[in-house]
Specification:
Two copies of one chain form a homodimer.
Chain A: E1 6-12, H1 20-32, E2 37-43, H2 46-51, E3 55-57, H3 63-68, H4 89-98, E4 101-108, H5 110-126, E5 131-136, H6 152-173, E6 179-184, H7 191-194, E7 209-211, H8 219-233, E8 236-241, E9 245-247, E10 250-251, H9 254-259, H10 272-284, E11 288-291, H11 296-299, H12 306-324, E12 329-336, E13 344-349, H13 375-385
Parallel strand pairs in A: 1-2, 1-4, 4-5, 5-12, 6-8, 6-11, 7-8
Antiparallel strand pairs in A: 2-3, 9-10, 12-13
Helix pairs in contact in A: 1-12
Chain lengths: 400, 400
C-alpha cells in the first residue's frame, strides 16, 4: 500500500432507514478499491463513537457481510443524534491526527451535514488536510440541493402501500367504522405524508385526504372535508403528518396534547391522530380507527424501493470517489436527468448551503385546498417510489 | 344447466385479512365448475347484505377480476360483524326459498362459524335442504379443530418481519431510546403475538420478550424482565398482546385505562403499550418507543405468506366441493400431514364443535416464565409463515 495517503472513517447518523446500510456498503466497497485509502474505520454510533475512539475495523469484515449490508435495514454501525460542539473540537483534531484520518464519509440528514461542515471548518482552521463528504440520508426528504434523499423513496413506498392496503380494510368494514387516520412521520416536512397519495390507483381509492405541515388546516375545514368524503362513499381514509398544523406554527390539537397529564404525572404526548380521532368522533359521530406505523415507516424491508437501494449504494461510492479525488468538503447529491426513463446521476454540492437548511414541500406540490398533493408531486415521486404492482381489483357492483 | 340444483351465496365476515379474497376466488372458481350450481350470489357485507337482499352477481364478473382477487387484500364483498338473531330467522328462510339458495359458503372466524351453524339449524328445522360450509379465516388463529386459520400465516409473517426490522432500528439507536414495544392484535389469544418470536434469526435478535394473554404477567415481573434484558445488551424489544393480562381476567393497566377521560368526555382506550411505556419510563428511567401497527397486521400485502395465499384458495374451493357433494354443514379445516416437507391437506369438521369456541395458545407453546414461545411453537408456525430471507448481517465488532 505504497500510495496510501491516510485512513478513512465512516459513520451513520440520525434515524435509520432501510437503505442506509446500502450506502455504507458502497462506501466500504469503493474505499477498498482505492490504494490511497489505508484503514477503514467504522464509527460506532456516529460522531459519538468517534469521540470515544470506538472504531470498528471494516477491512476485517468478510466480503459476504459487507455485501449483505445491501439488504439489511437500519444502521449497522449504530447511530447517534449528537451534534458537534465547540468543546469537542480539540479532541476531534487530536483523534484525526493520531489515527491519520484523511477521509470522512458521514451518512445522515441535516444534523449530519452540519457535523460534516464543522469537521471541515475545524480541519481547515488547523491546517490539517481532511476530505469530508456527507452522504445524504433521511426519510424526511428535507435536505436541500439534492433531487431527493436516499431513504425517502422506501419510506414513501411503505406509506403508499400501507395507506392502499389499510384503505381496502376500511372500505370493507364500511359504515361500522368508516374513518381511518394514518399518522405519518416527517416532523415539519410533508414529503412523506404526501407520498400517501401514490396509493391511489383509481378514482375513489384511499387516501381521500392528505394533510401536511406546510399547509395548515383549520379544525372546521378538517371536519368539513371528512364529512364531505364520508357522504360521497361511506368511508374516509386520511393521511396526516405527525406535525400537522392548525395555523402556521401551531400544532393541530396543541392545547389538548399539553393539558393531559397521565397517571405517572407525565404530560401525554397524544399525537395528532389521537386528537383528530376524538375530534371527528365527537363532531360527526363516526367511529374512527388509527394506524400509526411509527418506526416501521423507516425500517420495513418488505416495502423497499429498488431504485432507492441502488441510489443509496451509488451515493456511498461517490462520497469516497470525491474524497479520494481531492474534494475537501461536500454532500453527494442526486441529480435527475431530463426525459424518460427516470434516472438520477450523482453530483456534489458544498455543505455550506445544505447544513441546517430544511427543504419543505413546495407550494405547487399541494392543491389549493391544502388537502391533496398535485400531479406535479406525483410525477416527482412515482419514478423513485416505483409502481405498486400488481394492481388490485374490485368486484363490479352488479346487484341482483 | 339442466343439472342445476340451486343457487350459491358466498359471504365474507369479521375483520378482513390479506388472503380472504383468495378464499373468495376459490369459492367462485370452484362454483363455476359445477353444473349443480346456478347463480353465484355475493353477499354485500356478509349476513347483513343477505338480510337486505344485497347480492352481487359473481357470475358476471370478468375472469380477470375473479383471478385478481388472489392478490387483492381485504374483503372485496365488504364485511360485517352482525350475528344472526332469533328475529332474523323468518326473513332468512324466506330469502333462501325465494332465491332458491341451496349452497352457502361463509368465510370468517368464530362469529361466522356461529352464523353458519345457525343457518344450518334453521334450514333443518324448516325441512329446507341447505348446504352450509364455513371457510375459516382469522388472523387471531383461534378456531378449533383446524391446524391453523387462513389469514394467520400472513399476519404472523407481518408481525415477525415488523419486529425483526423495527428491532434493528432499536438496536441502532442504542441507549438513547433503548426500549421498543410492539403491540400486537389477537384479542384474547396470543397466537399472533407469539409469532413475533419468528423474527429471531440469531442469539440477541429481537424480540427479547413476548407477552401473551394466556400467560398473565405481573407488573413486577415485566419491569424485572425488561431491566434484565436491558442490562444484557442495552436495548430491549418487547412484543406484547393487545389483550395482555396482569392476572387472569385482569387486563394489564386496566385501572389506568379506565380512569382517564379525554377532552371530549370519552373514556381513553389507551392501549396496553401506552400503559407499559409509561410504566417502564417511570420505573427504569428508560426512553420507550411504541409501534402499534394496528390494521396493517391484517392488510399489508407486502408481507403475505405464499403458503397462506394457496391454503386460503384451497379452503375456498373445498367448501364448494363439500356443499355440492351433499355435506349439509361443516367448516373446512387444514389438516397437517406428518413429516417433511410441510403440507396441509383440506378436511371437514362439524360446526357444532367449532362455533363459539376459542382455541387459545396451548401451555406447551410458552416457556415457564411466560415471556417467550417454545421451540414447539416455532416448529408449528415457521413452515406456514415461511422463511424470512435473505438473512440480515451484522458487522463483526472488531474494535481498533
Amino acid at each position: 500500500m505504497g500510495k496510501t495517503k491516510g485512513n478513512l472513517a465512516v459513520g451513520q447518523s440520525g434515524g435509520p432507514t432501510v437503505v442506509i446500510n446500502s450506502s455504507l456498503c458502497g462506501v466500504i466497497q469503493e474505499a477498498i478499491s482505492h490504494d490511497e485509502v489505508g484503514e477503514i474505520y467504522g464509527m460506532f454510533r456516529g460522531i459519538d463513537g468517534f469521540l470515544k475512539e470506538q472504531f470498528v475495523d471494516l477491512r476485517r469484515q468478510s466480503p459476504e457481510v459487507v455485501e449483505g449490508l445491501r439488504h439489511t435495514p437500519s444502521a449497522a454501525l449504530g447511530t447517534a443524534r449528537k451534534r458537534v460542539e465547540a468543546k469537542d473540537q480539540e479532541l476531534i483534531l487530536k483523534i484525526l491526527k493520531a489515527r491519520n484520518i484523511r477521509y470522512i464519509a458521514y451518512i445522515g440528514g441535516n444534523d449530519s451535514a452540519d457535523t460534516s461542515w464543522k469537521l471541515h471548518q475545524l480541519a481547515t482552521q488547523a491546517g490539517y488536510e481532511l476530505h469530508v463528504i456527507a452522504v445524504p440520508k433521511t426519510v424526511d426528504n428535507d435536505l436541500c440541493v439534492t433531487d431527493h434523499c436516499p431513504g425517502y423513496p422506501s419510506a414513501a413506498r411503505f406509506v403508499a402501500m400501507a395507506v392502499r392496503d389499510t384503505g381496502r380494510d376500511t372500505e370493507a368494514m364500511g359504515p361500522a367504522s368508516p374513518v381511518k387516520l394514518v399518522e405519518v412521520m416527517g416532523r415539519n416536512a410533508g414529503w412523506l405524508t404526501a407520498a400517501a397519495a401514490l396509493a391511489r390507483q383509481e378514482e375513489g381509492d384511499a387516501p381521500h385526504l392528505v394533510y401536511v405541515p406546510e399547509r395548515p388546516v383549520s379544525i372546521e375545514q378538517l371536519v368539513a372535508d371528512v364529512e364531505r368524503c364520508y357522504k360521497e362513499r361511506e368511508h374516509v381514509v386520511v393521511a396526516i403528518s405527525e406535525g400537522a398544523q392548525e395555523s402556521a406554527g401551531k400544532d393541530l390539537g396543541e392545547e389538548y396534547a399539553s393539558k393531559e397529564i397521565d397517571a405517572f404525572g407525565h404530560r401525554m404526548k397524544g399525537g395528532v391522530s389521537d386528537f383528530v380521532a376524538t375530534l371527528l368522533a365527537g363532531r360527526l359521530g363516526l367511529k374512527v380507527r388509527i394506524d400509526k406505523p411509527n418506526y416501521l415507516q423507516r425500517s420495513l424491508m418488505a416495502c423497499v424501493s429498488e431504485v432507492d437501494l441502488d441510489e443509496a449504494y451509488r451515493v456511498g461510492r461517490e462520497a469516497v470517489r470525491q474524497a479520494v479525488a481531492g474534494r475537501l468538503e461536500g454532500m453527494v447529491t442526486l441529480v435527475r436527468e431530463p426525459g424518460q426513463p427516470y434516472h438520477c446521476a450523482v453530483g456534489i454540492a458544498s455543505l455550506e448551503g445544505i447544513a441546517n437548511q430544511e427543504k419543505k414541500l413546495p407550494a405547487n406540490f399541494m392543491n389549493a385546498a391544502g388537502n391533496w398533493p398535485t400531479q406535479a408531486f406525483l410525477d416527482y415521486a412515482r419514478p423513485f417510489v416505483g409502481a405498486l404492482e400488481p394492481k388490485y381489483v374490485r368486484l363490479a357492483k352488479y346487484f341482483v
